[in-house]
Specification:
The chain has 313 residues and is an alpha+beta fold. It folds into three domains: 2-151, 4-Layer Sandwich (Deoxyribonuclease I, Chain A); 168-208, no CATH class; 213-310, no CATH class. 42% of the residues lie in helices and 18% in strands. It is built from nine helices and ten strands. The chain has helices spanning 2-5, 70-84, 114-125, 170-180, 187-208, 213-233, 238-266, 279-292, 307-310; strands at 11-16, 25-30, 34-41, 45-52, 58-65, 91-96, 128-130, 143-148, 297-299, 302-304. A hairpin with a 5-residue loop joins strand 4 (45-52) and strand 5. Helix 2 runs antiparallel to helix 7 (238-266), helix 2 packs parallel to helix 8 and helix 6 (213-233) runs antiparallel to helix 7. The chain is flat and about 60 Å long.
Amino acid sequence: MVKQIWGGRWIRYACLKASGTRGGILLMWDARAWMGEVLEIGSYTITCKFESQTQNFSCHISGVYAPNCYKEMRLVWEEFSSVRGLMEGPWAMCGDLNVSRYISEKKNCNRRTKGMREFSDFIEDMELVDMHLEDAAGIRSYTIALITGCWERNKSYFKFENWWLQSEGFVDRVREWWSSFSYTGRPDYVLACKLKALKLKLKEWKQEEGGNLGSQRRRLLEQLAELDTERVNRTLTVEETTKKAAVLLEYEELVKKEEVLWRQKSRVLWLKEGDKNTKFFHKMANAHRRYNNIDQLMIQGEVTQEKGRIEGR
């Protein structure tokens, strides 16, 4: 079937097969232009990572075929929220969501439903942009395309992230900033000015002093990689072994912060922090384990997939 749609020996694809009344999903790409990798396949979604073969550019594409049932739509939001934590950079999501965002998009609809509100909440929390696809007649298409704001280089979003509260000294730092701001005028004006100044301080802290989980993750993994490389060549010193244990402990704390972050972004309000007995967070944990797994490693100029050599045994 793939060859009938788009023939050629360079064509690659990933798919989620149809099941019952639910349609399937097919993502196709030209291997001469893109190197594709399946990141996650769920019940209603499939997500792939793509790297350009000709430019320094990578992105993620998700296809979706959602159920025509309000209660099951929450499972779609959960799938997207769980995989969102594995992605950095541009992300596009397209397909049939079987949900409208506005009253004007649905025939014989005179009120905004709960499903519409949750769809809008999902777009906001995932920091997505609705592309507002229309057909040739200018009518809103049933196919929906959403992209992250980072496709648009000039856009910058700021949102307070709950995991910051778990960072050591963060609350004291905010209290110190707040006390240092000095404005005169009406109380509402002073409050607005102080909030604006605090926002700038938080953005600076996020960029420069560890307020970004992605940069923290990369830093810790680089430190672990350096120590593991040394371990291949020689026995680690007591100081290095202690340092590795400290880095692993810091990484464990980072994972907890990421859990808080994606609980916030997913807006799954019926879940409480610390509750591990949910399908959603088991899926997130499994996805993180797959993402963090090292399938191959270059050791002394040689690429190996042997688990023993990778683990330094």
